[in-house]
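Annex B.
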Amino acid sequence: MKNSNPSRAIVIGAGLGGLSAAMRLGAKGYRVTVLDRLDRAGGRGSSITQNGHRFDLGPTIVTVPQVFEQLWADCGRDFRAEVDLWPVDPYYEIRWRDGSTFRVNGDDTAMEAEVARLSPADVPGYRKFLRDSETRYQFGFEGLGRRPMNKLMDLVKELPGFVKLRADKSVYAHAASRVKDERLRMALSFHPLFIGGDPTRVTSMYILVSHLEKEFGVHYAMGGVQAMADAMVRVIEDQGGEVRLNEDVAEITVKQGRTTGVVTEEGEALTSDIVVSNADPGTTYEHLLSKQTKKRWTPKRLNKSRWSMGLFVWYFGTKGTRDQWADVGHHTILNGPRYNGLLDDIFIRRKLADDMSIYLHRPSVTDPTAAPEGDDTFYALSPVPNLHGKSVDWAEMTETYRANMAKVLNDQMLPGFEDHLSASHIFTPQTFVDRYRSPFGAGFSLEPRIFQSAWFRPHNVSEEIAGLYLVGAGTHPGAGIPSVVTSSEVLNKLVPEARNPVIPPVQRLAAE
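Phytoene dehydrogenase: predicted structure tokens.
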């Protein structure tokens, strides 16, 4: 028999962090309501469709399927039975302006041959780098990343590991200590850009991504990340929860230092036992809790924090091109003429450079549903400065930057593609502010520097308000699909079982 007065939880935001949190709260017996201001679930992993082209707006790959398998298992379900996940091979190809390339896959022999093709003398150093990566994966992802870090002692206990693994070195500095070829240094160090960090300044702990790729592969969800988000919604609804779209939260309500629920922009007051925010921590503390006095995450502190770079993303479709550009696969990284200098322009000088590097996503070579038959769907992403301080006027610069990007794509990868354009849509950092309420238009919340990681990051259990919890890219363990989903695993260890479960525990266990 279902409880007529169950414990209730409200989740703000239907991103992957919020949806995974809702699933785990539902498994604990909470009646969960998820509220999101967008018209599709998935947050930055949602999609839009234009002229038959489905554009995945944000993340495009899954690197640690096990976190989803565990999430589904925690809810008594089978992830593989509900989501069609395909391995991508090669994972991606890196291209430089001199014509050299580097194709990445999971085969050790093939990868060493790729390294040797660029720089035979760097093969031994490459092997050492992979060993370093595995060590940091065990310490950083399986260790720190899957445990709460909301108490200072949680950090103090790990300090010897940080010292031993030289967490003070940057990702680029560590790669440079292992290989001499500048192309390989780039190929082994660029990964922090996919979680919003400057490779020349974020902690070398993030070289663990190289092990993730090697050990678990790179995968694509058929139907895009949107299909994964939709599958998560089905689990939540099967648990008795609800996902309400086009519902914007205006305020988290507080009484005597404890959250009591939320108020929507339409003025509807919803009460709950706990609130979980998948909104950016900056948005949570500065806007959703604007009436509350903060001790740690004050507006001044948030303004002084270092935020991840912005993103310029051009989503476009081409008609009748499925058999063209046969050398352009699912994922391609096209380097500009500079690496370190461009990073300085983006992160330090906050200058919109004339040159650019581009990540090109072509899902239609793997997933026919991404485009009309015979057509192609693409997105081209370029890191740019965020909107903090002196910022770019994107109302003025959008078309100029798009035209520059088109020229690079035409000259380097997709000759003549503009003659086939059948759909076009652009996101700038200003879009991230307007669509996601992202502070300063940052693409990945707080930059994952060493003093903005682990305990130094906004905690999963709020330091400010009792009964409030945080998940998603801006909290521990950080950005990227595996970490965002793992934030709900950490949450699961902090939130108590529902006092009045939707289904009494015995019946719930029997049902599982």
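The longest strand covers residues 310-318. Residues 123-143 form the longest helix (21 residues). Further annotation is deferred to the next reporting cycle.
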